[in-house]
Amino acid sequence: AHDLVREAVQQVLPPETLRWTHARVAQALHAHLAPQASAQHWWAAGQPRQALQAAWQAVQRARARGLQAHLLPQLARWQQQHAHDTSTRGSLRVAQALLLQELARPEAELEARAALAEWPDPPERAWALLVLARLAFQGGSLTQAHSHCSAAAEADPDNLDVLRLASQLALQQGQAAAAVPALQAEVRALRRAAASPALADAMTSLGALHDELGQVEQGLPLHQEAWALADHLQARRTQVDVAINLLWCCCALPKHLEHGLGIAETALALGEFDGSDTLRNNLAWAYADAGQPLRALPLYRQLAAGRDPSLRCVAWSRIAALLARTGAPADAQA
Question: Is the pTM for the entire model greater than 0.85?
Answer without folding.
Answer: no
